[in-house]
Amino acid sequence: MEPDNYQEKTYSILELNTEIEQILEGSFSELVWVRGEITGFDKQKSQKNIFFQLQEKNPDKDQIISKISATIFNSDINRLLQKFRQANVGLELRDGLEVRVLCKIDAYPPWGEYKVIIKDIDPEFTLGKLAQSRIMIIQYLKDNGLLDKNKRLQLSLVPLSIGLITQKGKEGYTDFTGKLKESGFAFKIKFYNASVQGERVESEICESLDYFNQQKNIDVVVIVRGGGAKTDLSWFDNKKIAEKIALSQIPVLTGIGHKTDSTITDMVACLSQQSPSSAATFLVDRVRDFLQNVDEISVEITHSAQNYIRYVLQELKEMKSRINRESQLFLQKCKEEIDGVWADIISYCKYFFKSVKDTMDNYKSNVNFIDPINTIQRGFSITRVDGSAIKSINKVRKGKDIITTVSDGEIKSTVNLTKKLI
After folding, report:
1. Between 391 and 256, whose confidence is greater?
2. 156 and 282 part of one domain
3. Does 150 reside within a domain?
4. Higher pLDDT, 170 or 234
5. Is 355 in a helix, a strand, or coil?
């Protein structure tokens, strides 16, 4: 059907927006409850009237699927903030919180816009959503074996090299670093400036954890924040931060909570303390305990060494006495054996020399018996010719000079006649 066939009224822009206003206000003549996530609140909360947005996200993709403007007028600000604050100690409205608010639908025809004017708030809804989200994240970490993963890392006995994650100049930074300086120990701090409240907490803390896991010689990564509202702690009930801590190759120590509160970040970290000061004190005490243990071990080693030396000296003294005693017995036994051998040698020598003497006497007797001189003395003589004894008449001839030896001299003669006896 062509547009020219329509005879209805043609609206001006203002007329159309005014008509829409009347329809909206007629449809929502009473206040309505609306739930959504606060955004843009932190930038406006110091203004006379607070203007921000409520948004809805796709829970599966974490994407914004709808948004509406919201206003809290000055006349309602203190009452609403006070109500929200009194619902739980330290609880404050901030960006990122999911809230349930009682609203008046308000349209503004000149701009063709509409918004909600917040008249009341349900703090219990926000606390319930925070608790529900927290339970889901914890269950996710358990199901994927991440809740205790960082706790299985061994913290150094002397954690002097520290990767510090916090916001520089804030109370958490000064409390933590001040405690370390007071200790007098040689702590070495590598610092990464990161937000500890607000929408940038997740991205900046995840970036800082990635940074320190790429560094060398970091003993422990410490995440601290100073005092603040209780809802500020909810920034650390964060799934992505918890995953980064669980998968960190370096032990993580936290000091971000209050005495009665514990965040998921605390739960998944290797160790957690109540505050930046107590986190620093924990590290100082660990180093001090190590040094004290070293001193105690040194004393024990010294005492053990002294006791062992005394024991060894006593053993040496007893060994010396035993050696002296046994050596004297050994020497006495050797002397007795030597004396016995010496007596045997003397006895044997006497026997040997007597035997030799008897043999020599026997030889002498035999020699004397056959000695020509002794034979001559018994009346015999020896006759030689040309120096050789004459044993046969055939050895001499007539006219040959011969020498005859008798017991007291020699007789020279000349052969005149030889005569055989046979």
Report:
1. 256
2. yes
3. yes
4. 170
5. helix
249-278 burial, b if ≥16 CB within 10 A, otherwise e? Answer: ebbbbbbbbeeeebbbbbbbbbbbbbbbbb
Query: Is residue 321 a part of any domain in this protein?
Result: no
The length of the chain, given as a count of residues: 422
- pLDDT of 250 over the 90 cut: yes
Backbone angles phi, psi at 149, to 5 degrees: -65, -45
Q: Domain of 198?
A: 145-288
User: What confidence category does residue 161 fall into, taking pLDDT thresholds of 50, 70 and 90?
Assistant: very high
Give a yes or no: residue 383 inside a domain.
yes
What's the pLDDT score for residue 11?
80
Q: Is residue 419 part of a domain?
A: no
Buried b / exposed e along 221-246 (16+ C-beta atoms within 10 A): bbbbbbebbbbbbbbbbbbebbbbbb
Q: By C-alpha distance, which of 204, 272, 210, 209 is closest to 235? A: 204
Look at residue 407 in the predicted model and tell me its pLDDT. Answer: 75
What the block records as the tokens of 161 is: 């090299």
Longest dimension (CA), the chain: 212
SS3 at position 291: helix
Element (H, E) at 115: strand 113-121
Q: Which of 232, 256, 288 is the last residue of a domain?
A: 288
> Is 106 in the same domain as 154?
no
| Residue 280 DSSP SS3 | helix
Q: Which two tokens stand for residue 68?
A: 């509406």
CATH number, domain of 83, equals 2.40.50.140
What's the total number of domains in the chain?
A: 3
pLDDT tens profile 356-407:
888 888 887 777 666 666 666 666 778 888 888 887 888 888 888 888 888 7
First to last CA, the chain: 199
Closest CA to 155 of 214, 65, 221: 221
Radius of gyration of the chain (CA): 63
Chain-centroid distance, C-alpha 301: 22
Mean predicted confidence (pLDDT) in 302-324: 89
Position 71 pLDDT exceeds 90 = yes
Task: Say how far apart CA 52 and CA 79 lie, in whole Å.
Answer: 18
Percent of the chain at pLDDT > 70 equals 91
Among 248, 268, 288, where does a domain finish?
A: 288
Cα angle for residues 240, 245, 251 (degrees, 5° grid): 175
